Each structure stands twice: as structure tokens, then as C-alpha cells.
């Protein structure tokens, strides 16, 4: 008879790959899913996990589906719910609740069950198909934030409330709903009883009654619970009516319906409520303060690497002091307190949670471990409120009735600027031995004007004065406040304090931040850099700021004058994948983790950008190019060429005479300049007599190479030569003016080549980090050598492009397709010639090819990336180039000692394994392919001693090992992981392992 167990078997789930029975889970579960176990009817039969994240819940004949669906949606953790009842299987979307039917939306039935097979889930095929259905805009946290945002806007703009009063009213309302949903008895003007939302709305219908109720809450719970100065003056009945509509789930504005009648604040994680602060501060305040919304997945990650790890490594510790110097809504501190409380519960299993001792213990844990600073008092109110809710989460409804909140403002939370060294918090916090300083400091750029310095500017200025006689002096670039935060945190560090900040990635790469990096790397031990630039479009996809903000998490310690040179730095770079886009689940692959000595950061300022998209093979390649070749700018200066940007028209300073440019042909950047060709229109003339910077008139004389600031979608430079006509152009174009046509054509060929695409990705400060452009210094820093063949091809491409432009003007022409084919072939010829020019070996060529075929297309989300990253077929010759890297290294050496090096490929739909076998006898090298089922490969790997197959293959992207007469590697059936560039990395790993084994034997 069909059952949930038979569905497990059909989908390929078992205990070896992530399936847990509920009874196994509940014993270890103190997290978000624990709320599903609070009532028997919510408890699933089983759960399928990937890593530590639940992805599928299984239920068999559940009792109350409407309550179950509401609870699952509110918990916002599990995307897929499979219910088996009455011999029917239905698959539900855990992220979408349909208010009208009181149900989760349906993803499918038995016919769609195969979409959720094990291999389809872990390889991402499932999520690719259901991506739209699982959209973030359907989830409870999005709906909650949107409802609060709209209600707050109405309270401020239509009801006349101040920002603070609107925040406080909403905060008190959420707190009251929390008490209602937790079934805490409220004794207001009556005997204590469990309220309903209707009871609260009845209070809100009477203005004086409402003021008395708020006063009652403050007196009963004490603490600092959204205090409103003179509420009779700062609130009004219209505002209370808005809250009533919000609670009753009616339409608020613009057809947006409140979901407050569906929200369950006894289930919704406190951190979601804390994150409402992102909407509280609004777009205008965010722009002013530079405060960025902190994604919960980054909070979880930092928490796992700091506080959680601290208790894992120090199990006897009972406290962990943490400071967030830009705490905002307190999300970091909420999660920190949760970990500390759970450690306390683990250490005190027999202590009754209803006892006075337990309640006092929670208060003491908060008072001794949780500290925050913020300029925004409204933000501090949210932070303190969130801490209070966290404390209540660990108590029963009856215990909550007798709980008094600790006063935290002024002792643990401080309203003030972190850089005000005279503020009272400095003395209080200097006495605390912090284990961690964590947070997401503002990313604001540009301080005060004139002599009116911002506090952080004044702090850096004073620090420079203090350090004026030392080897390195504090410096920040572009008045970046995040850089100042990184330095200021050191003032509160002891020798063991670890700082973990989310900062803009630009800090690591910007050309003008070199002095800051030098100081920072010299004075602080950098433990880990966790780089998120490659997934920047997904990191802050819920932020108020429409800009694509590149983020990195830096873990570091103050060096206290010790040398940092020998310190080992871990570097992680997260690459685009379906799991991260949908679930913010980090799949950190082996090749995305590097370790290096900190001295390299000081010696090679550009190495961090290389490691972002490359590896140490790329480092050695770029190092060779930089050391062995002159650059375009160096060669240009040697030949007395003129280099400069075009005309700047506008500005605050006095304009200068530019009349000598009038009547010259005007070339527009976007419309007229393309790679290899410029459309010079004899009828489009320059007419402006004045300009801020008119430039040297010689710059506008032919011949010159024009270079745009932007690069193509595939990261190629965009440059072209003006051979004959005098032209004028604006500052968005840079020109190299020279009579040496061969030089200009060669430089044009280099900048427009695939090698430049690779170079831009691997070395330039903005490409792949913030926006697709490069600075003049970076483009002109490209290696150069004269090459007649390159110059000749560029001349031919220029002519082909000219012909194509003329043909495109004709209404009827069959020549265009032929010319475009000719153009593509000639550009391919150029790419090959440029690589030959710089003498690339096979390893270096593979690095360039990998960037062009996979790295860049995945960043720009090109369709070609999906095509190129497809699976391999049985006997696919593509795998031959991977195998060749190994056979080239081993075959001859083994043949010389009378042994044969044989390759055996295990092939399946989702996995490929390669065994490299050493056998007796001088046979010809051969490759044998064997068809296998996925399940057979999994069983074989378990037999080889690899238990956590899912984590190893689909997260690390490979499993490798040694047998007596062979070594092997298994990876997913994806082209990019079997590229030749990966072969050289894998080969190096095997060689290192062989050398280490040999050393141990000696």
C-alpha cells in the first residue's frame, strides 16, 4: 500500500543523503523548525535536509491542514511540502499562502513528483523549474515588511505622526499581537485573560482607553518598550483606525491587502520583526546615513563563524560578550542572544524555565553579553524591542505574565555616534572584554563640507596626528565611513577579540584605497575574507537602495603592533548558483577557497581581485605579464604620445575658451564608437565655445586611438582608431594621440581581445565587482609589445566593420550575413594571435578560456553560459582535454619504469568519476568508459569511505582519494567542473598529496 515511505523510495531519499525522521530531528532541534514540533498536528513525518537546511517536509493524513498551512508559511523555512492522504499525493509551496482558500499554493501532484527526485533537487534542476513559484515576493517576511511599510507611510503622511511615533505605535502593536498569539493573559481593566485581535481592536477604538493600555504595558513589563513622549499629543484616533485596519486584514492602499489576520507572531522568527527596521528608516534616511539592510542569511553566517563557533571550541564557557557598533534594528544581537541562551539551556537542563532563577538568568545573560550603539534612537527602540521578544521566546505564556524587561538603554544600548570618543559609552565599554565585535556598518561616502568634519573624519584626522611618527599612518579613501569603522573597532579589541564586519567589496579593490589597505593589512590580522561580489545582485535584492551593492565579510583582529606577515588569510568567493539565488544557501566549492600569507596582500595589492575569480595559477600568470612586459601607457610615454580624456563641459569652476574646437566633427561615445570602428559624421559638428577642461588641441588631431570607459557585456574593451579626420569628443572617451599607427593598432587589438576580457575580470577594480567598466589606469596598464600581425588584423577588422556599416544602410542586401561571419572569424583570429604574442602556455590558455566560457557568461547571465555549462554525453570528447592534463604528466614517467597509466571513466546522468590506474606492463595509454547508474556510483563512494556524499559532491563539487594502485576523482556531470583549467588545479592537488605522502613515509 502506498505511503510516505514509498514516496521516499520513489524520490531517492534515505538516511545517507539527508532524510530524517521527525523523532530524530526533535532531539537536536532548538532552531526555527522547533515551533513545528510544539503541537502534535504540526509535526511532520519526516524532513529532507541539504546540509543543515530543511527543503522538504512530508506529512501523512494530517489532522488540520488549514492550521498546518498557516504555520508552515509563517515559519518561512521550507519550500516544499509533500502530503500523502487518501492514496493521493499533493505537493505544496511552503512559501506561498492563499488567503482566500486558507491553503498553501499547489506545485503539483503525483505527475510532478519526479521533479523532486534527489538528484534533481541537489543539482538545482528542481529549483530552476519552480523558480517563479518560489519567488521571494510570496514569502511571509516580504508580506510583513510590505504591510508595515504601507501602514507606516499612512501613519506619517495621512495621520500626521512623526517617524518615531509611527514606529512606536507599530512596535507596541506587534508586541501586543505577540502576546495574543502566544496566548499570554492580559490583565487590563479585568481579570487576566487570553485576548483575541478583536479585544485589542476594541481598545484601539477608544483613544483614552488605548493610552491607558499602553501605559499598563509599560508599567507591567518595565524596560524600554517603545516609549512615546506625551502620547496624547503625538497620537490620534485616525492613526489608531489605521492600525485596526492593519490587524483586521483589510485593503490598506493601492490594492495591497494586509495579511495581519494570517500572521502568527508566536511562529514568525523574531529576526523578521527586527528586520522591519529596514522599512522603518525608509529610502531617504538610508541614503543619508548609508545604512544597508542586513540580509538574514549573512547574519546567520557571521553568527555561525563567531558566537556559535566560540561555544563549540570553548564548551565550558558560559558567556560571550558581543558589541555591534552600528546595531540598527539589533538583528546581529538578537541572534547572538539566542545562541547564548541556548547554550545556557544546554548547560542547565534541569533548571525549570518557569523559575525566578531562570528568568533572572536570562536577564543576566543579556546584561553581561549584549551591547549596541547607534545614532538613530528609533533604531535602538527596535533593537531593544527585538531583544525583549527573544527573551520571551524562551518562556511559557504564564511565565511571561510575571516577567519584567531589564532596562537596557544607557547600560547596554547607547544612542550616539561610534566615533565620538568623548561619549560616555567609551568608558563603559572599555571595561568589557569583548569576544566579538560584529555588524554591518554604514557604507556612506563623502563626509562634511569645508571645515565641518563628520565625527568619523575628525577621528581619522586625530588618529593620523597621533600616529604621525609611526611607520604607517591611518588613511581612508573617498571619505568612506566603512573604512573608518574597520579601524575604530580596534579601539575596543583585546588580544583575542575578533571583529566581523560586512563592508562594501570596493574597499578591497578600489585604486585609491591602496593606502587604506596598506595600513589595514599592516595593523590587523586578517583571518578571513568572505567575498560576495559575484552574487551582488542577489545579496541586497530586498534593500531600499536600487544600486547593486557588492559586499564582503571581513573577519579580523587588532595586531597590537605585532607583525602580520606570517598570518594565514582564508579567502572565500561565492559564485552564482540556483541555491543561493532562491534560498541564500552557500555552496562553497573547493576551488573557491584559498589560503595565503598576509604578506602577499601587502606585496601584491591586486592579488585579492585575482583570487575573487581566479586561483594561484591565475596569480602566477598575471604576475608574469606584469613583470615581463611594459604597459600600454609606459610605451606611449616612451614614444612621446599624448594621452588624455575629452572635453568636460559642465562644472562649478570657471569655464575656459574652447572656440578652437568649433566646427570640428563631434563623435558621441555610445552612438558613434564601437570596437574597431568610429562613425564620424561630417554633418555633426561641435558648437560649444566654452568648456571646463578644453584639453590640449593636439589631442583632437588624427590619428588617435579612442577608448571608452565602459567595456562590452563580455568584458572586452571598446576601442577604435580615428585615422584621418579632426574630431572632438567628451571626457567619457580617452584618447592616445600618436603618429605611430602600428602602436595604435596593436593597442587597439589588445584592448578588444579575449585576453583583455580575462585581464579585466581578474585584475580590474570594478569589472565583476560593481559595474562593467574599467579605469584608464587599468586599461592602459594592460601589457604591451609591438606585434605587426596583431596590427594587420586590426586594420582588416576596421575595414570589415566599415563595410558592414555601409551595407547596414542599404534597404535590401544579402551581404550582411556573410560580412558578419567574416567579422567573427577575423576576431577569433585576433584572439589567437594576441595569445601567441604573449607566449601563453597550455595552463595559461586554459585560464583565459575558462573565464571566457564560464566565469564571464555566468556573471552577465548569458544564455551561452547555460549551454556551455550543460552535461557531458557518454564518450564525450570534451572530457579528453581534462584527462590529457593528467596523462601528459604521468604516462611517460610510468612507462619508463615498465608500468601503464590507464584511465577509467564512470559515467552517469548526474555524476562522473575518473580512476587513474597504474598497472604492470607497457601497454599503450587508453581511456575506458563505463556506463553507471547514479545510485551505483553513490554506493561505490560510500564503500570507498565517503559518507557525506551530498556535501562533498554537490557543495564542494568533488570527491577525491587514493587506492593502492590508483587515485580517483568524482564530480557532478557539469562541463565547467571538467574544464582543462580545473584539470591543472586538480592535478596540482594530487601532486601535493603524493609529495606529502612521500615525505611522511621518509
Describe the structure.
- Its EC number is 2.1.1.72.
- This is site-specific DNA-methyltransferase (adenine-specific).
- The protein is of the alpha+beta class and about 1000 residues long.
- It folds into 5 domains: about 5-140, no CATH class; about 140-310 and about 375-410, no CATH class; about 310-375 and about 410-610, Rossmann fold (3-Layer(aba) Sandwich), CATH 3.40.50; about 630-855, Adenine-n6-DNA-methyltransferase TaqI, Chain A, domain 2 (Alpha-Beta Complex); about 880-1000, no CATH class.
- It contains 42 helices and 36 strands.
- The protein has a 9-stranded mixed sheet with strand order 13-12-11-14-15-17-16-18-19, with helices on both faces.
- Helix 6 packs across helix 13 (about 275-290).
